[in-house]
Give the backbone structure.
Amino acid sequence: MDDGSPKTDADWRELLSSEEYRVLREQGTEAAFSGKYWDEKRPGIYRCRGCGSLLFTASAKYDSGTGWPSFYETVNNDAVKTEADKSLFMARTEVHCSRCSGHLGHLFPDGPQPTGLRYCVNSCSLELDQTEASRDSLSRDEPNSSSGEVSDG
């Protein structure tokens, strides 16, 4: 994982594939339905491909029908930062990793409850960490307080 020290452009090019570099460092977007995580259903924690920071849990992922991994919340309030994106003749909110400033995707106000948000993220800006799967699964499989049954997520 990343040690947190500043990286040069050459460092990033060595660390990332050409597609990852284009998305994370040049604000690119991968084609819909082309990334490895758009239809991923395994439990775990999604980390930033650039620096390894925790970004999203698999339990916050949902099928938005857009062809990109979509999440309704981040793992914590400090995981990402946002900024206005006025490219392509429209106003959008761009999402970046708080630690390395890698471009992740965009944030839209059309997601499901409980947040109503949709973090639409490029697969190549993520890395699914399944060593965290048991922690993620535990949070989804706690007994339902009203029935005593276990939720299936």
